[in-house]
């Protein structure tokens, strides 16, 4: 079994990725979504956690062998950066969503040296806004950002465009295109729901998929 399929099955089994096309969730933006992701649940399952952290470490070794430090996104990427850093014997740190309003006012926590080759560790990428902000903060601090590794990505066009504009690449353990057919095959959704889910992924603002409009 390929790693992407194993991680997809893991995420579905523990409910880290939850598909509900007939009762969509509502994002903070107001967009209706048939999918809810909470990859923090991977930390609570020892077997899945092992698959995820070893998988992320392998992504770093494969795509960013020059990596000198791992930087987690706040807050979901911090634990993963710490565990993978331990496995790979690499230093780690993390980037806050904004500067602290006390102490030294740090946004970047941990020791980051100018020119240090950094890899960003993220749990989930949808529109890529937050992880691109992290990349930009690290670059402003003098880091050489090699790229991003993540657990799951939607593959939304807006996210792909943002990553391209920032000149940074992402490698995920699994993605929307892998998980949807597995979910249908294993009974998490109905087979006819696959087209509805892909319609959402392709254009989240178009809600015609709700109620079976994309069947």
In short:
By secondary structure, this protein is of the alpha/beta class. It has helices at 3-13, 46-63, 76-88, 129-140, 157-166, 176-185, 193-202; strands at residues 17-19, 25-26, 32-33, 35-37, 69-73, 92-95, 108-109, 117-125, 144-153, 170-175.
Task: Give a description of the structure.
There is one protein chain. This protein is α/β, with parallel strands linked by helices and 215 residues long. It has seven helices and ten strands. The strands form three sheets. The protein has a six-stranded mixed sheet, with helices on both faces. A two-stranded antiparallel ribbon has the order 1-4. Helix 1 runs antiparallel to helix 2 and helix 1 packs across helix 6. The longest helix has 18 residues. The protein is globular, with a radius of gyration of 18 Å.
- Output mean pLDDT: 92
Name the strands of the widest sheet in spatial order: 7-6-5-8-9-10
Distance between the termini: 30 Å
Helix content: 25-40%
Please give the radius of gyration in angstroms. Answer: 18 Å
H-E order: HEEEEHEHEEEHEHEHH
Structural class of the helices, strands and pairings?
A: alpha/beta
* Outline type: globular
State the major sheet. 6 strands, mixed
Number of helices: 7
Secondary-structure map:
Blueprint: H1 3-13, E1 17-19, E2 25-26, E3 32-33, E4 35-37, H2 46-63, E5 69-73, H3 76-88, E6 92-95, E7 108-109, E8 117-125, H4 129-140, E9 144-153, H5 157-166, E10 170-175, H6 176-185, H7 193-202
Parallel strand pairs: 5-6, 5-8, 8-9, 9-10
Antiparallel strand pairs: 1-4, 2-3, 6-7
């Amino acid at each position: 079994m390929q790693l992407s399929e194993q991680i997809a099955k893991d995420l579905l089994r523990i409910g880290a990725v939850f598909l509900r096309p007939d009762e969509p969730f509502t994002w903070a933006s107001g967009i209706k979504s048939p999918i809810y992701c909470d990859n923090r649940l991977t930390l609570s399952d020892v077997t899945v956690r092992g698959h995820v952290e070893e998988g992320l470490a392998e992504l770093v070794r494969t795509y960013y062998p020059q990596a000198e430090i791992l930087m987690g996104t706040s807050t979901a990427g911090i634990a993963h950066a710490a565990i993978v850093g331990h496995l790979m014997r690499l230093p780690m740190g993390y980037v806050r969503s904004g500067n602290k309003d006390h102490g030294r006012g740090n946004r970047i926590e941990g020791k980051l040296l100018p020119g240090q080759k950094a890899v960003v560790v993220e749990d989930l990428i949808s529109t890529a806004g937050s992880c691109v902000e992290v990349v930009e903060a690290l670059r402003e601090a003098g880091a050489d950002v090699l790229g991003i590794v993540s657990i799951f990505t939607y593959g939304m066009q807006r996210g792909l465009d943002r990553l391209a504009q920032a000149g940074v690449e992402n490698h995920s353990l699994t993605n929307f295109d892998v998980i949807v057919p597995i979910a249908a095959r294993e009974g998490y959704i109905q087979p006819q729901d696959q087209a509805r889910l892909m319609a959402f992924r392709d254009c989240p603002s178009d809600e015609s998929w709700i109620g079976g409009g994309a069947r």
